[in-house]
Amino acid sequence: MALGSQQERSDMSFLAHFGELRKRLMTSIVALFLVSILCFAFYNTIISAFLNPFEQTLYITQIEQGFTTKIKVSIYLGLIVSFPIHLYNVVIFIIPALTTRERSTLSYFLGGSSVLLLCGVYTAYFQILPISIRFLQGSSFVPENVVLWLNYRESLLFVFQLVLAFVALFQLPLVLLLLMMLNVVDRESLHKSSRYFIILIFLTSAMVTPPDVVSQLGLAVPLIILFYLTIFVAKLFNFGERRT
To answer: How far apart are CA 87 and CA 19, in angstroms?
Structure first.
């Protein structure tokens, strides 16, 4: 009898967990869909800003490229803008046993995620992208007698992939802060391991940025600053206290 009751509770727990997963997935999908639709509707206005860094005419080499690029870019934009919502849903799903106070605190994390998103977009678009374009189009790689024709689709996807990488990496301090809030990671151990995090930051920056030192430093330096700022904020709020 007890075994049957335990089995029923297990089945109910599974159904509840599955229901929560479906709810979170639907929320993320709807958010991505709605934002992507808005970006598609105002595509011409939005895309002009992303064409400015190239300062030259871009070319389409296939008849369907304009349509397919509009679809892909709208989805990229939708993913970038709705990123905080996806992060929030992931956290709520993988850590279901949160108290009311902890769930309330997550709303502040959502706001922080939005701020970090804007910082990531600003750093990628206004700081790193112009340097990368000048570097990659420089005479060191493109001889003077070679005409540079940039493909419309590939150029735009280059921009959005770079911006998306910055947006994702700029969320890492928030993830660390959340782990310390939940006492999954203690602050002192994180600080002692800072040298390894710095090495990891430089390696990751080298992989997701164009192959120039300035771009890599442009991503790595802000991430290192955010790493130490995260530890400082955790100390202010007594997150990640070492358990005795």
So the answer is: 18
Section 109-137 average pLDDT: 85
Query: Tokens 């990531």 belong to which residue?
Result: 120
Nearest Cα neighbor of 74 from 107, 105, 45, 103 is: 45
**E strand segments, 156-221:** none
Asked whether residue 118 falls in the same domain as residue 184, the answer is no
Block residue for tokens 């690029």 = 69
Distance CA 34, CA 16 (A): 27
The answer on 110 and 34 residing in a single domain is yes
Q: What tokens were used for 139?
A: 């005479």
Q: Are 124 and 210 in contact (CB under 8 A)?
A: no
Q: For 187-235, how does the pLDDT look when each residue is reduced to its tens digit (9 = 90+)?
A: 888 888 999 999 999 999 888 887 777 778 888 999 999 999 999 988 8
Q: Which two tokens stand for residue 5?
A: 């009751």
The last residue of a domain, from among 144, 163, 182: 163
Work out how many domains the chain is built from and give that number: 2
Q: What is the pLDDT of residue 5?
A: 53
List CB contacts of 91: < 8 A, sequence separation 6 or more.
106, 109, 178
Q: For residue 61, what are the domain limits?
A: 2-163
Please compute the mean of the pLDDT values over residues 14-41 and round it to a whole number.
85
